[in-house]
Design a protein that fits this description.
single chain; about 400 residues; 1 helix
Length: about 400
């Protein structure tokens, strides 16, 4: 069963390329395949990842000793180029990262302050992971669910959930020098952000969940703001009477938004993808299910449609979590899906996809017996089949 918690938001902006409108292809019967994956894995758990300007994958997360880590991963080979660890007590727990315009990276996360509150913590690092500066920001309340993007003007927008009596939406804009300013968006009920992404016009898209009544099912929430933080639309909608968590959004042509996530209906979790018009109207909504629970966490535009990554898991004791990849046409109709079988006693989750002729599917893995966490890159072909 999906759960929510009390949150407040903070965000950073970058620019998304718009894809031109395309003719809708004829719907085809989905193809379903299962793949046994062989791979070389690395210790640690990835919380977020991007593709850097030089083509390599930059990822942040934690190692098995509890330190925060920044990894540079070869896009072509999946090997670690370099990594650097940072004590959580000083630099916080890493949650998201963005590449800086002139090199290096900005990382956001959560750090426990001296008074015991969970604060947003920002780290400015070089291309080699050396600290330029780091600082805690936020409010007297706890901040959680931190994500970040970069604005067209170079500022970073960090979105987080703020735990207080009204669960206000909180955002922070910060320059690379560390200057920041804050805004709070008030709305009745509980607002829970999961992701912030840029739009092409200089604004941002915040994706998450809204509970206007704590006992009612959580609603889909997508908030689109202009470059002056004016509200373009604020969509809060109950979807199929299910408990909904929206995880990720991207902007496509003409200001429309594609959003993905999961919803729980009658005790089973289903994935969904929907298209939202530039005025905040849902144009279509597609659900994806199987004989287990199906969770979608990431969405990428890929040629003539989209691909979504996530995992499936059962409710039984001993049922493994298995990585999932689904290919969709431009209307969200399923073309094919692949479920990747993990090794025995391993739970695996797809966390990001970097498309190409040889696409890189980034996955987390956890050993059920030892609790050890590892991650790996699996290379796949255009149909999602695992490549050796």
């Amino acid at each position: 069963m999906l759960k929510t918690s009390s949150l407040c938001l903070c965000f950073v902006l970058s620019i998304a390329a718009c894809r031109p409108e395309e003719k809708f292809p004829t719907k085809v019967q989905p193809e379903i395949a299962e793949n046994i994956i062989q791979h070389n894995s690395h210790p640690g758990h990835i919380t977020n990842s991007i593709q850097s300007k030089n083509g390599d994958i930059m990822a942040c997360g934690t190692d098995n000793a509890g330190n925060s880590v920044l990894w540079a991963i070869s896009h072509n080979y999946g090997t670690i180029i370099w990594s650097k660890s940072y004590p959580v007590s000083e630099y916080g727990t890493f949650a998201d990262l963005e590449e800086k315009k002139d090199g290096g990276f900005m990382i956001c996360g959560i750090k426990t302050s001296d008074d015991g509150n969970a604060d947003i913590h920002m780290c400015n690092v070089t291309d080699e992971g050396l600290i330029v500066w780091h600082k805690s920001v936020g409010s007297p309340q706890d901040e959680v669910n931190v994500s970040m993007t970069r604005a067209t003007g170079g500022q970073y927008v960090v979105v987080a959930a703020q735990k207080n009596s009204t669960y206000d939406l909180f955002d922070m804009w910060m320059t690379e020098s560390g200057s920041e300013w804050h805004l709070v968006f008030e709305q009745p009920g509980e607002q829970i952000p999961y992701c912030v992404t840029p739009d092409a016009a200089g604004g941002i898209i915040i994706t998450g969940t809204h509970n206007d009544n704590i006992v009612s099912p959580a609603r889909l929430q997508v908030l689109k703001l202009g470059n002056f933080l004016d509200t373009i639309f604020n969509l809060s909608k109950l979807m199929n009477n299910g408990h909904t968590i929206a995880r990720h959004s991207i902007e496509i042509a003409n200001g429309a938004v594609i959003t993905c996530g999961s919803r729980s209906i009658a005790g089973m979790v289903r994935g969904f993808v929907c298209k939202i018009s530039k005025t905040g109207v849902i144009e279509w909504d597609r659900e994806y299910s199987c004989d287990s629970n199906l969770v979608i966490e990431k969405l990428v535009s890929d040629g003539d449609g989209f691909k979504v990554a996530g995992h499936v898991y059962g409710n039984c004791t001993g049922c493994n979590s298995r990585s999932l990849l689904i290919s969709l046409d431009v209307q969200g109709n399923e073309l094919w899906r692949n479920i990747y079988e993990p090794e025995n006693n391993k739970d695996e989750t797809a966390v990001n996809l970097f498309p190409g002729n040889k696409s890189a599917l980034l996955q987390n893995s956890k050993d059920r017996n030892t609790g050890e966490e590892r991650f790996f890159v699996q290379y796949i072909d255009q149909k999602g089949a695992a490549l050796e």
